[in-house]
Write a structure and sequence with these properties.
about 100 residues, single chain, Meta-cleavage_hydrolase, two-stranded parallel sheet, alpha+beta
């Protein structure tokens, strides 16, 4: 989700689904303060992960760590709805590890 200079977070729609925000600690494109503002804007459905010693290109700089957080977020079971549990698909991080 890219923000233009003149656009405010309050103009963005609220997200009600569980949301994972992954941010590089040293990101010069979008300052770290923006990550915290985005988390506050989304609210309790958002989880903010700040990856240390990485900039804007997390997928290129620390692909294994990125995959770890994505896998955890996508694969951890959600509370059952209507007594039904959902099965997740496997996520293979090997493609990222080979880079």
């Amino acid at each position: 989700m890219a923000l233009h200079k003149d656009r405010k977070l309050s103009n963005l729609p609220k997200i009600t689904q569980p949301t994972l925000i992954i941010w590089g600690e040293l990101d010069r494109v979008f300052p770290l303060e923006l990550a915290h503002r985005l988390k506050r804007h989304i609210g309790e459905n958002a989880e903010l992960v700040i990856i240390k010693n990485v900039g804007h290109a997390i997928n290129a700089e620390k692909p294994k760590e990125l995959c770890k957080y994505l896998k955890s977020f996508l694969m951890d079971p959600l509370p059952p709805q209507n007594g039904k549990s959902s099965d997740g698909n496997k996520i293979d991080c090997k493609a990222l590890e080979e880079k």
